[in-house]
Amino acid sequence: MSEELEVKRIRGTGWKSVYETLRNEILSLALPPGQLLDEMTLAERFDMSRSPVREALIRLGADELVVTLSNRSTIVAPIEVATFPKYVEALDIAQRMNTRLAAALRTESDLKIIAKRLKSFEAAVKTSNHLAMSEANKEFHMAIAHAGKNQYLASFYEKLLSQGQRMLHLHFEYLERTHEGYLLTDEHTLMLNAVRDKNVELADELAHAHTRQFQDNFINFMRENYTTDVALGPLRAAE
């Protein structure tokens, strides 16, 4: 009877452990962009049938972390460097709008949550665990977004933050190597203070500067590590 229950559990929930493990490995770049994800190989690795593995891959596809090719094979989604300027332009607008709204509409309860997320990020930075840092960074910015009280803008922002986590991983690597990691925690503190003071214009400026710093450091990382020339234009202010 216990074996039968175990089979039912795996069929119903086994995909979650596969999904979470693969997601973490993709975001941390342990599974690099373009890596083939073979269902049979993964089933053997996780000691499961192919059904939960297939379900996990479907959900990773919904997160845009894997893509299915025309021959039905699945690979880790490439990091589209050529479209980075468009990505960062959208991120800049979403970050500025959500931070502006938070400064205008935040409650005392919102401030406590944002401050808590800031402490979590600072703790993650001390561990030098880039995956923990990117997750904590996302939670900090989403706490600000939720304080803005616009679920549509917050949802759009969350999607962009999720799509950018692998690039943020490289961003953290660059900051760590150049000893400029302190800038992130300082900027987060300044953003929290602007939201607390209901200083909408300052919150806007800080959000824009935060995006620009991410862009500049990611471009510097790419220039150091890749020889292919990719046109990455300057970040314009989103009016």
UniProtKB/TrEMBL annotation:
Residues 12-79 form the HTH gntR-type domain. PROSITE patterns: HTH_GNTR (PS50949). InterPro entries: GntR_C, TF_FadR/GntR_C, Tscrpt_reg_HTH_GntR, WH-like_DNA-bd_sf, WH_DNA-bd_sf. Keywords: DNA-binding, Transcription, Transcription regulation. Coiled coil: none annotated. SUPFAM superfamilies: GntR ligand-binding domain-like, Winged helix' DNA-binding domain. The keyword Secreted does not apply. This is GntR family transcriptional regulator. It comes from Rhizobium aouanii.
